[in-house]
Amino acid sequence: MTPSVDSAPVPPRGRRVQQTIASLRDRILRGEWPVGGRIPTEPQLVTALGVGRNTVREAVRALVHAGVLECRQGSGTYVVSTDELAPVVARRITDDQRAELRMAEVVEVRRAFEVEAARLAARRRTPEDLAALDGALAAREAAWHGGRVAEFVEADAALHTAVVAAAHNGMLAELYASVGTALRSTIARTMGDELAPERYVDHGRLVDAIRAGDPARAAREAGAFLEPPPGG
């Protein structure tokens, strides 16, 4: 049977794979498949995406190679990162013998991101952003007063992430997400094995500055606890 003249052309195989990779990545970025969660099975993906098994297999393999997905024998395929940059940053932190130098670099990068994020957040925060910041700050304080180190590290990272989200800059948020592992590493290293009083940093003033809509004060508060040591 002769196909109709208005039939949609079938894209070349290479392009189908690239389109499938883009579709998978988009679903990950939108949070449909969160980090730590398992993606649908291969047959389910074939049905959902409307492509063949080989195309799905190649797309998944590409994202595994990029460090976004991880195949676990007998369990399935899981999301381990939201983008390709995060594993690269993580490897620089964990694999390099000059760990202390790398940590100093992470703090410098954090300062570049977080100071500008705080400045923007003070201008653009919404009532929903302020509620998220208050919730993250309360969780951070509760973890600190409870002496729960691992929980505090996660809560502190969540607060900084909430500040970046309140900046309403998509590219900044994506770049910041890529240093998530490094962020937690610097917080954990600063805290050590216990939450000593001398290591406590008040982030309430940062949240207050954002709430007040004061960009200069918000930037100052965000940068104060990330200042390099004298001579650094």
Structure description:
This protein has helices at residues 13-29, 42-49, 53-65, 85-94, 99-124, 127-145, 149-166, 170-178, 180-191, 204-212, 215-224, and strands spanning 69-72, 76-79. The relative contact order is 0.11. The protein is elongated and about 55 Å long. α1 (13-29) crosses α3 (53-65), α5 (99-124) crosses α7 and α6 packs antiparallel against α7 (149-166). The protein has 2 domains: 13-79, Orthogonal Bundle (Arc Repressor Mutant, subunit A); 86-224, Up-down Bundle (Four Helix Bundle (Hemerythrin (Met), subunit A)), CATH 1.20.120.530. Residues 1-10 have low confidence and may be disordered. It has a two-stranded antiparallel ribbon. By secondary structure, it is mainly alpha-helical. One of its GO terms (molecular function) is DNA-binding transcription factor activity.
Q: Nutshell version of this structure?
A:
Helix content is 65%, strand content 3%. By secondary structure, the chain is mainly alpha-helical. The protein has 2 domains: 13-79, Arc Repressor Mutant, subunit A (Orthogonal Bundle); 86-224, GntR ligand-binding domain-like (Four Helix Bundle (Hemerythrin (Met), subunit A), Up-down Bundle), CATH 1.20.120.530.
CATH class category of the largest domain: Mainly Alpha
The CATH architecture assignment of the largest domain turns out to be Up-down Bundle
Gross morphology is elongated
Determine the mean pLDDT: 82
**Helix-strand topology string:** HHHEEHHHHHHHH
Summary keywords:
about 230 residues, mainly alpha, Arc Repressor Mutant, subunit A, Four Helix Bundle (Hemerythrin (Met), subunit A), 2 domains, two-stranded antiparallel ribbon, 2 strands, elongated, disordered N terminus
